[in-house]
Amino acid sequence: MYGVELTRRALIGSGAALIAAPGLARSADPRVGRYTGLRENGVLAFKGIRYGRAERFAPPSPEPWDGPALRAQQFGPIAPQRGNPDLPQSEDCLLLNVWTPEANPKAKRAVMVYFHGGAYSNGTVTDPLTHGHRLAPQGDVVVVTVNQRLNAFGYAWLKPFGPRFADSGNLGQLDLILALQWVRDHIASFGGDPARVMVFGQSGGGAKIATLMAMPAARGLFHSAATMSGQQVTASGPGNAWKRTQALMAAMKLAPDDVEGLRTAPARAIVDALTATDPVIGGPVYFGPVLDMTNLPRHPFWPVAAPQSLAIPMILGNTAQETRAFIDPKGPKLEGLDWSNIAPRIAAEVKIDLDPEWVVARYRTQFPDWSPERLFYAATTAGRSWPGQVIEADERAKAGAKATWVYQLDRPSPIDPARGAAHTDDIPYVFGTLDAPGSYSGTDARAQATRDLIMKAFTGLAKTGKPGLESWSPYTLPDRATLVVGDGAAALVNDPRRFERELWATGPYIQPGS
User: Fold this and answer.
1) Which of 41, 116, 151, 192 is positioned for an S-S bond with 123, CB 3.0–4.6 A?
2) Per-residue pLDDT tens for 430-448?
3) Which pTM does this prediction carry?
4) Domain 316-505, CATH homologous superfamily name and number
């Protein structure tokens, strides 16, 4: 929701009315520094705190801690994007939110910093599923959620236009680094311990974390990590990134060398051009981190795991039927699915180039009782959404990282049985937001038991560097111990999908967008 189109300078200024802003506050409202928050579900909440400012296609600058008193009682605008059209959007989106049991500098609670999904193109931490008002009190932690620049605003590669744009391919990542520096410098005032900062993220949020684990500027800013169905084995090469920038500019009807036109174009014009066809992989044009050899001097997990990440304790997880979240079982892709047409439909969805007829035959031999639909979702999950996690966990194990744990969510949704255990379904268990809009967990006793189990694991990692479940063994080779989370309980299983893992390892995995 852009409303009237604003100039760049007016757009920056307009955000002040939507985020932490001057005004009267109730005497009982909590205050930290110059920010006045509110009480929410028994915890203190501070929303819409600006951690930085940035001009378009330029690195961010930190926001001063001192200054006029501000109310931090409502979320600010989200990053410009094609998604979430009903929410206020602004390029002035470098905002974070804090939930804390108490704003006591002596409390020194572990800190959990969340980055949202939506690939690198869409999404926001203001989604009710990722509010911290349950996780903070139930997990006894300080929760921080962060928004940053996305899509072309955060990741378009403009360095060929000159050194002025040298950071352009990773600006969204630099925003996250600036937010983590804010946490380091100021979270103690909110009762957090800057020496115990855990980053966690789902889907694109997990990919952003994997990328940070190879960025020298992020070194030392977080002490543990958890990725949920989100991996980044390789980044985009500068050649492919440049092709995407040129595709965007062509869609905007700009000359190939008109960087000034791109820099000054209305934000809406850039967002509308994101529908341009990606010149490398097809579909809408992709923007993500770029191997620029400065901010990101190597791929995160290729050819091996980045050495700077090996000492960071890490949880990696996925759901058993990831693709049920975005391939509707009642939609056109599954309409009329049977053994005669399943192979080409699988081929269109996976990221590993194998003969689909051979893949189907192998599955049918291994699982003769499976229906076409069950095989389709298993194969598209294992050949599309899961391989990156396997590669990352294996590479950490090969490199000698001792503190790696892997989970697999098997609990199906009781709200929508056709959904199974799909992409995003682990979010409400971590945040405790079982009853939030968009949750498929239900609120019954087993949902609560699953929440308690997963939340304990995540908060344990934040507090001690180990999951809060003593029975969860680290992931090593060749065992590949995996915590399989079912309906209110969990079991440790070695290599639970060995057949599928070995089948899809027959060919190389190509990271989407690389």
Assistant:
1) 116
2) 999 999 999 999 999 999 9
3) 0.94
4) Alpha/Beta hydrolase fold, catalytic domain (3.40.50.1820)
